[in-house]
Design goal:
This protein has 240 residues and is an alpha/beta fold. It contains eight helices and eleven strands. It starts with 7 loop residues before the first strand and ends with a strand.
């Protein structure tokens, strides 16, 4: 396989990606499969950070829509991402990948606090960093966390994994068989057409900082092919 096209990337993993077919929680077989894919990328010399969601365990926005205080619901969601981060860290380290988990909510017994310069240094030493706990503040999604952290650590691209969807479509492909996959589009197109790539705060942050986004599925060997420079999924950038 040719050398990697990127030196440093941030991978946004949805919480749903960890539950596989069990419908809730974490499937160890799935985390192990994801760890194998990440190891292949790291072995190409790519520095990798991972932001993991928590939707397989808890969705704060849904709970708040049912009457729960939004801040409380969001903090619970942040804790869910830490559970997912620990599971992913375990799978990676059992596979021989040196890993550090860093959290925006301090939890010294299980993770380091997120410090930008320390995170960068870990990656420079070849360690995968898992960024859990969101931003440590309510009202922000893990999409926004991924956008901000990708800019902070100097990633070249934000890789947005979408559970079982291989890119951005002009309609929901799970509901509309005539939905058309978009190979590329601009930030403004994604915002104006409300394509639900990520929340508007996250997308605007990527646009303001010219952070390219690739929306893709983790199925098969997509991740390793993507970092090798192949066109996989949908690319979102300043010029579509």
């Amino acid at each position: 396989m040719p050398g990697a096209a990127y030196k440093r990337v941030l991978l946004k993993l949805s919480g749903e990606a960890l539950m596989g077919e069990i419908g809730y929680g974490i499937d160890p077989k799935v985390t192990q499969s994801i760890a194998v894919k990440i190891k292949e990328v790291v072995e190409q010399g790519v520095e990798m950070a991972i932001v993991v969601g928590g939707g397989n365990i808890w969705r704060g926005f849904k709970a708040s829509s049912q009457g729960m205080d939004r801040a409380v619901a969001d903090y619970m969601g942040m804790l869910a991402t830490i559970l997912n981060g620990l599971a992913l860290q375990d799978a990676l380290e059992r596979g021989g990948v040196y890993t550090r988990m860093m959290t925006a909510i301090e939890m010294h017994e299980v993770a380091e606090p997120y410090i930008r310069r320390r995170a960068i240094r870990h990656m420079e030493k070849g360690r995968v960093i898992i960024l859990a706990g969101g931003l440590g503040q309510p009202y922000f999604t893990t999409d926004t966390t991924a956008a901000l952290r990708s800019v902070e650590i100097g990633a070249e691209v934000l890789l947005m994994e979408k559970n079982r969807v291989d890119g951005v479509y002009d309609a929901d492909p799970r509901k509309n068989l005539d939905a058309h996959k978009l190979e590329s589009l601009t930030y403004l197109d994604a915002l104006n057409r409300e394509l639900k790539v990520m929340d508007s705060t996250a997308l605007t942050m990527c646009m303001d900082n010219n952070m390219p986004i690739v929306v893709f599925s983790l199925q098969e060997d997509n991740l390793i092919r993507l970092v090798a420079g192949e066109h996989i999924g949908t690319v979102i950038r300043k010029e579509g």
